[in-house]
Automatic annotation (TrEMBL):
InterPro entries: ISR_Activator (IPR052748), Sel1-like (IPR006597), TPR-like_helical_dom_sf (IPR011990). It comes from Methylobacterium tarhaniae. This is Sel1 repeat family protein. It holds the Pfam family Sel1. PANTHER family: DAP3-BINDING CELL DEATH ENHANCER 1. It comes from the Bacteria. Signal peptide: none annotated.
Length: 146
């Protein structure tokens, strides 16, 4: 993605169709690629407010990574949970990684197992792999959402 080209194109598209969450999400991705994390957050937030579970995952990642943005694992975990509860497989996986690795709260093997299983049922291969590691090693598998 060429962020310098994508940002004005996304803005122009949003001016034409401001209620399309996909456009706000793509604008967030362009800002994210550029390293403009506060702008990425605002665009993702608008997409999330319009119902984008993918945007919720990306907001969680921004909070978890804290690159030129507020680092807050509690908020990351909450955004991942919201995306998971909406039925989005990547959100399920990310929430499971937070539960597995104690990101933003206590580790929860039972919860991690349940969410990894839900994500795996929906075809998320990395969730199947993490589920196996969780069964063998217990919590703290190091599975990552990013």
């Amino acid at each position: 993605m060429r962020a310098g080209v994508a940002i004005p194109a996304c803005r122009a598209a949003i001016a034409q169709a401001p209620a399309l969450r996909r456009l706000h999400f793509q604008l967030g991705r362009a800002y994210d690629r550029q390293g403009a994390n506060q702008d990425a957050y605002l665009a993702y937030r608008r997409a999330a407010d319009l119902g984008s579970a993918a945007a919720k995952v990306n907001i969680g990642i921004l909070y978890h990574q804290g690159r030129r943005f507020e680092k807050n694992d509690g908020k990351a975990r909450a955004w991942f949970r919201d995306a998971a509860e909406s039925g989005f497989p990547e959100g399920m996986y990310c929430y499971a990684t937070a539960l597995d690795n104690g990101i933003g709260g206590m580790a929860d093997a039972q919860g991690a197992r349940a969410w990894y299983a839900k994500a795996a049922e929906r075809g998320t291969a990395k969730a199947r792999a993490a589920l196996v590691r969780l069964e063998i090693d217990g919590t703290g598998t190091g599975a990552r959402c990013d």
